[in-house]
Structures are given as C-alpha cells and as structure tokens.
C-alpha cells in the first residue's frame, strides 16, 4: 500500500525543461502515451458495449473522476493527489479484476467507465498532475 501511495504522490521538484511541466515526457514518447490513451478508451468502451451496459449510465458517470477537481480548493498538493488517485489505471483495473472474480456487473461497469475516462484524458493530453500546478502533467502542459 505504501508503494501505491508513493506512486500517486505528486512530485515536488520542478524540472521544466522544454514543456513547462516538471519531468514531462516529450517528443515521440509523449505521442505514444497519448495513442495508448486512445487505445485504452477504445478498448474500455468496446468492452462496455460488449457487456450490454446502458449508455445513459456511461454518459452520466464518464466525468465522475473529474469531481476530484474540488480537492484543488485545499491546495495544489491535495488537488494533484486526489486527481492522480482518480485518474490512475490501477484502481479501475483492480476494481475490474474484483468484479470478474465475484461476478459483479455494477463493479465491472464502474471499472470500464473509469478506464475509458482515463484513456480519454490521456488521449487529449491530460496527464497525471504535479503539485506545482493543475496544468503541469506528466504529458506536459495541459492543452498542448
């Protein structure tokens, strides 16, 4: 559990060479990560469709992980930690594994929506956040 907490903890030391974001990937690697996000979105959405879950729920809950933005009211470190916890693939993958193990359709639905959301965010350039500011992500500055 400590290892997971360490992975989700936002970095403190800025290294803003090239991107303005601390420790951001650049060049071809950045595009590979964004394409992976698109693939994750497509795979999770296809799996959701294959399960026959309702699209109304997909639309309703697709942006739910973004409610973590409210944690930025407590400061950038809290905001980044909350955002990263909700936008990591680890949680939905563990939830999906548990859903398959116990045969829970609602848990599987939540896992697939979570993975689709994370894939979408990565595909459009919203990466995991650094404590230096909302716009500083592992994929560079948001929106670039």
Describe the structure.
The protein is mainly alpha-helical. It has one domain (24-141). It has six helices and three strands; from the N terminus they run ααααααβββ. The chain has a three-stranded antiparallel sheet, covered by helices on one side. A hairpin with a 2-residue loop joins strand 2 (133-137) and strand 3 (140-141). Helix 5 (90-102) runs antiparallel to helix 6 (105-123).
Question: What is the gyration radius calculated from CA atoms?
Answer: 16 Å
Shape: globular
Quaternary structure annotation:
single chain
Q: Which sequence of SSEs, written as H and E, runs from N to C? A: HHHHHHEEE
Structural class assignment: mainly alpha
Unreliable segments (pLDDT under 50, ≥5 consecutive)? Answer: 10-19
Which range best describes the helical content: under 10%, 10-25%, 25-40%, 40-55%, 55-70% or over 70%? 55-70%
Quote the beta fraction.
5-15%
Please describe the biggest sheet, giving its number of strands, its sense, and whether it closes into a barrel.
Answer: 3 strands, antiparallel
Mean pLDDT: 85
Number of strand segments:
3
- Helix count, per DSSP? 6
Kindly, what is the distance between the CA atoms of the first and last residues, rounded to a whole number of angstroms?
A: 33 Å
Short synopsis of the structure:
The chain has helices spanning 2-8, 27-51, 55-62, 76-87, 90-102, 105-123; strands spanning 129-130, 133-137, 140-141. It is mostly helical and 144 residues long.
Keywords:
144 residues, mainly alpha, 58% helix, 6% strand
